[in-house]
Amino acid sequence: MHDHAPTGIRGASNRRLLAVSLAITTTVMLVQVVGAILSGSLALLADAAHMFTDAAALVIALIASIVAARPANDRRTFGYRRAEVFGALLNSVILIGLSVWIAVEAVRRLLSDADTEIAGGLMLVVAIVGLLANAVALWLLSAAQRTSINVRGAYLEVLGDLLGSAAVIVAAVIILTTGWAPADAIASLVIAAMIVPRAIGLLREVMSVLSEATPDGVEVRTIREHILGAPGVADVHDIHVWQLTRGAPVFTAHVVVDAEVFAAGRAGEVLQSLQGCLADHFDVEHSTFQLEPAGHVEHDAHT
Question: What is the DSSP string of 207-257?
Answer without folding.
Answer: HHHHTTPPPTT--HHHHHHHHHTSTTEEEEEEEEEEESSTT-EEEEEEEEE
